Amino acid sequence: MKKIQRFFIKSSGANCTILENCPTHEVNRYTAIGVNNLITSSLAAISTYVILFSIFNNFILALFLGIILGLFVFTMEALLINSTKKYDNRKAELASLIPRLILAIILAFIIAKPLEIALFKDLIMSNAPDNNLPSFFAALMILDEETNSNQTVFNSRLFINGLMIALNIMPLLIKMFTPKGVYDFLVEEFEERRKFDAAVSKIRSNFQASDPGLPNLEEFQKTFAEAKKQIGKNETRQAIEKLISIPQISHQYYNELITLSARIEMVDRDKRIGQISSEKHLISINQINMSLLELIDRLNH
């Protein structure tokens, strides 16, 4: 992967390391998204510089504020795209997409306004009282008045705003409505591992493993029977806590119980945020229950 391509991919908010293991068409997709982000942020920076330099005639101030707005737009674009996730639940996908689309459209108008003033600078100046470019909001008011009476200005502004909206929402729509690719699955796997490690750390902090001692078989069997009843009542968390609390349990089984508890944390969290459906959540819980019952049988022999 070339340096310039890595730069474009980073501009899209994607992970270069993960993309190196993906097909070429997915690398090209995120490269194109990065180029799109650079175009919109550059337009924002240039148009802001032109307006501010015309108003204040101060090169350093205009350049500084132009770069600031360009970086703001660049960061927001990458953040919007990178935070757009694919879910098994279509409603959850739409619920995630709609606020991002609204933010992207607002961002498009923020970019379009200075661009409009820069393009219609001569028209605004000819209608200004002293034939100079007025303040930002005064320039917008003059441009609005001209828009109401001049069809050409109206059509031009409509085109500029439409173009900015299209440039801003297109990457979101591409990412949301293209089928899941290798990159999406690798990112999910990476995030699942990170969430799993965090869940394990959290659960380990709540329990302290004991060194194995002489087992009390009667207490063991009583605890196993109670744990199985809890599993039958879908009280899997309580069953795991009961088994972890056994003082004579070995570190091997303790680690397996911690892992199962972490899996429950993950699937419950994914269901809460709508990342998995209720049906998939139930299937995952049943799989955890089966693994827990198999572990109890091993402990019981």
Describe this structure as you would to a colleague.
It contains 13 helices and no strands. It has 2 domains: 3-178, no CATH class; 183-299, no CATH class. Mean pLDDT is 82; it is low at 209-215. The chain has 301 residues and is mainly α. The radius of gyration is 29 Å and the shape is elongated.
For the structure shown, list the relevant keywords:
elongated; 13 helices; 301 residues; mainly alpha; 2 domains; 80% helix
The proportion of strand residues reads: under 5%
Q: Care to count the β-strands?
A: 0
- How do the SSEs run, as a string of H and E? HHHHHHHHHHHHH
Tertiary shape: elongated
Q: Low-confidence segments, ≥5 residues, pLDDT <50?
A: 209-215
Mean pLDDT: 82
Radius of gyration: 29 Å
SSE topology sketch:
Elements: H1 3-11, H2 16-19, H3 24-56, H4 59-82, H5 90-119, H6 121-127, H7 136-149, H8 151-177, H9 182-206, H10 217-232, H11 236-244, H12 251-272, H13 278-299
Helix pairs in contact: 1-3, 3-4, 3-5, 3-8, 4-5, 5-8, 7-8, 9-12, 10-11, 11-12, 12-13
